[in-house]
Amino acid sequence: MDNSSEYYIVDKRVLPEVYIKVVEAKRLLEQHITSSVQEAVDIVGVSRSAYYKYKDYVSRLSADTRGSTVIIAFNLKDEAGLLSNVLNVMAESGANILTINQTIPINGIANVTISMETGNMKKQLGELINEINGIKGLKSMKIIARE
Questions:
Q1: pTM of the predicted protein model
Q2: What are the Cα distances from residue 129, in Å, to 33, 48, 68, 83, 123?
Q3: What DSSP element (H or E) covers 73?
Q4: How far apart are alpha carbons 16 and 87 in whole angstroms?
Q5: Where are the domains of the chain?
Q6: What one-character DSSP code corresponds to residue 103?
Q7: How crowded is residue 93: how many other Cβ atoms within 10 Å of its Cβ?
């Protein structure tokens, strides 16, 4: 199963309007201009279902992207040293690990959430994600938040 991601920088003039509206709704929520998803999607004119479908996959590239915090959720096989391998790849990239939360493995799979600061990374986040995806024993990985 190939669960690697590729990242692109695309001029917003060629993006489908729904992506731009989802990014704007996210901005309204992040800046506390609106207090609910429903209010944000009503303002920008996109459906809640479209918002939830795309919100984790579209974001705006900005000057403050460097130095941001990224939270990634993993499902890892219960194998000795696997989490250490993931952490080593992150450390080699220059990421600063802030927190690690891990569940007790159930049915041979451990859920791990790692937050990291990306300001001093030597490579792009997409490169790091693809490198981690190549680690044997990784079942799934998803970026769940970016600040």
A1: 0.59
A2: 31, 28, 15, 15, 10
A3: strand 69-77
A4: 36
A5: 12-60, 64-146
A6: P
A7: 19
Four-residue CA torsion sign, 83, 120, 68, 97 = positive
What contacts 24+ positions apart, CB below 8 Å, involve 84-87? 85/135, 85/137, 86/112, 86/114, 86/132, 86/135, 86/138, 87/114
Distance CA 121, CA 115 (A): 14
Q: What are phi and psi of 146, to 5 degrees?
A: -140, 135
Tokens matching residue 88: 């080593």
64-146 CATH? 3.30.70.260
Rounded Cα–Cα distance for residues 42 and 121 (Å): 37
Residue type, 111: N
Give the tens place of pLDDT for each residue, 1-44.
456 667 776 778 899 999 999 999 998 998 899 999 999 999 99
